Amino acid sequence: MKIKLIHEVRAVKSKQELANIIKAQRISERVLQDVLQKLKTGVTEIAAAKFVTDGFAKYLPAQAGGTPILAFPPIVAFGKNTANIHHEPGSSKLKKGNIIMFDFGCTVNHYCSDMTRTYFWGEPPAKQKKIYLAVLEAQNRALKKIQTGERRAKVIDNVARKFLSSKFKNNFKHGLGHGVGTVIHEWPNFKPKSEDIIPTGCVMTIEPGLYFKGFWGIRIEDMVLITKKSCKNLTNVAKDLNSAIL
Question: Which CATH number fits domain 6-244: 3.90.190.10, 3.90.1640.30, 3.90.230.10, 3.40.50.620?
Answer without folding.
Answer: 3.90.230.10
